[in-house]
């Protein structure tokens, strides 16, 4: 098999002062941070769809990059060339995992039985490569948003026939995820939402989505899938209203339908900001509900109101992300770069620059987050902030053993309420800058 990225050698760690653009400045896989190797803190994954499929087409223009990998697109030869390119790419970067949708890995046929046959063939080939390289599958999923049959939704469709096709795709994608030893299985509700209430029965649709997820859990467990199912929240795009708006909404949905034992969340940075939250907020809400599973590592653009899926370069954000992840004790999933090169960055070399940038941004974020935790000032401030609840009455409130009347009596005794202590936000922001920039 011919080498595809011929001009690019294995990317090595060369230290922060290197001017070599094809080397890591911060990602040093074996470096120990808080008792664990960087590579264990940061199980990075390549997103099949952006890296091997997307070639720059947008609403206004066609492909700018050549991702044919020397074959004809839309053929099984092309599907295999993508496997070759993907594994060479991951090996050269030292990336341990990949994520895929069913239709990323083969061209979808008119007939689902033929698509499934192609999926069997390609995953046999992927398995060989996985054995040779030690690269693993982070998660699999079914694309239930691109095909026109899903225009009214997949789990939320009005059509029983379409619902069966969604079920068939999930069944197959679960089988493939198990075959490839995937750690997780993702539901991103791309078309699960609505444009107008004039034609939508929201309750009916949400119940049907939950029923489909329940069947997926039952089937997955029956074929030996022991990993986590994930919902990946996103508030809008492609739909105006998407049901999995944000972490809190998805958690409520999972609890309402009894799916919370099998599901966690896959939090994507750009989806968080589209929902009007920080990335960090979504991670914290997931973590405190014990549902922080995996991360789609990318970043949005604060000036644009859509999902730009940029490679992350904002170290402040990656530091805050890693702070949450370290505090939560790590992820059961990993860090999937659900990110694409900008349209004019259209060479093979740009694909490597993008991943080096993303991996270094998270490595530096990890280093700085660990320094923030070791520094301890933020933690001790927060600890002290709630100290008034440490006394006898506070403890009774915390354990559900106080009454409204006795609290009101205490307020009446005091008469007027003392002003609480300062929140000291600017002081704390200064601490973050001190730790980050020294
Ligand atoms: C879309 C998105 C998806 C999911 C998987 O915004 O993030 O690629 O990650 O379906
Ligand atoms: Co995503």
The gist of it:
With 438 residues, the chain is an alpha/beta fold. Helices cover 46% and strands 11% of the residues. The strands form 4 sheets. An 8-stranded parallel beta barrel has the order 5-6-7-8-10-12-13-14, surrounded by 4 helices.
Structure description:
The structure is a single chain. The protein is α/β, with parallel strands linked by helices and 438 residues long. It folds into two domains: 32-375, Divalent-metal-dependent TIM barrel enzymes (TIM Barrel, Alpha-Beta Barrel), CATH 3.20.20; 378-437, no CATH class. 46% of the residues lie in helices and 11% in strands. It contains 16 helices and 14 strands. The strands form four sheets. Strands 5-6-7-8-10-12-13-14 form an eight-stranded parallel barrel, surrounded by four helices. α10 packs parallel to α11 (315-327). The longest helix is centred in the last third of the chain and has 28 residues, at 348-375. It is globular and about 80 Å long. The model has no long low-confidence stretch (mean pLDDT 98). Bound molecules: D-xylulose and cobalt (II) ion (CO). Cobalt (II) ion binds at residues 188, 232, 268, 296, 338.
């Amino acid at each position: 098999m011919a080498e595809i990225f011929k001009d690019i050698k294995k990317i090595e760690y060369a230290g922060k002062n290197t001017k070599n653009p094809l080397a890591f400045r911060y990602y040093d896989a074996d470096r120990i941070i808080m008792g664990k190797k960087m590579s264990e803190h940061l199980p990075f994954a390549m997103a099949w769809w952006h890296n091997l499929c997307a070639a720059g087409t947008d609403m206004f223009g066609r492909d700018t990059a050549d991702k044919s990998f020397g074959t004809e697109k839309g053929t099984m030869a092309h599907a295999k060339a993508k496997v070759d390119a993907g594994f060479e790419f991951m090996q050269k970067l030292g990336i341990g995992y990949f994520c895929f949708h069913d239709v990323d890995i083969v061209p979808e046929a008119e007939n689902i039985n033929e698509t499934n046959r192609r999926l069997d063939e390609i995953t046999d080939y992927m398995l060989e490569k996985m054995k040779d390289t030690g690269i693993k599958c982070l998660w699999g999923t079914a694309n239930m948003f691109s095909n026109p049959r899903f225009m009214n939704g997949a789990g939320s469709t009005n059509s029983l026939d379409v619902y069966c096709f969604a079920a068939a795709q999930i069944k197959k994608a679960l089988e493939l995820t198990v075959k490839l030893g995937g750690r997780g299985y993702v539901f991103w509700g791309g078309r699960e939402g609505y444009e107008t209430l004039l034609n939508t029965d929201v309750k009916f649709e949400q119940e049907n989505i939950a029923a489909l997820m329940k069947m997926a859990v039952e089937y997955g467990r029956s074929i030996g899938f022991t990993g986590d199912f994930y919902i990946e929240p996103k508030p809008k795009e492609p739909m105006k209203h998407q049901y999995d708006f944000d972490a809190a909404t998805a958690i409520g949905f999972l609890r309402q339908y009894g799916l919370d034992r099998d599901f966690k969340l896959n939090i994507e940075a750009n989806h968080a900001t589209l929902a009007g939250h920080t990335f960090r907020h979504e991670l914290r809400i997931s973590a405190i509900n014990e549902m922080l599973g995996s991360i789609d590592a990318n970043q949005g653009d604060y000036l644009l109101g859509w999902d730009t899926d940029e490679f992350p370069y904002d170290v402040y954000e990656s530091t805050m992300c890693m702070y949450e992840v370290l505090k939560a004790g790590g992820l059961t999933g990993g860090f999937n770069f659900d990110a694409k090169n900008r349209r004019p960055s259209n060479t093979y070399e740009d694909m490597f620059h993008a991943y080096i940038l993303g991996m270094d941004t998270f490595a530096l974020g990890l280093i700085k987050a660990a320094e923030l935790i070791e520094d301890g000032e933020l933690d001790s401030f927060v600890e002290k902030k709630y100290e008034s609840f440490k006394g006898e009455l506070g403890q009774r409130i915390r354990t559900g053993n106080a009454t409204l009347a006795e609290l009101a009596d205490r307020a009446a005794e005091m008469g007027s309420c003392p002003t609480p202590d300062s929140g000291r936000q600017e002081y704390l922001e200064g601490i973050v800058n001190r730790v980050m920039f020294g």
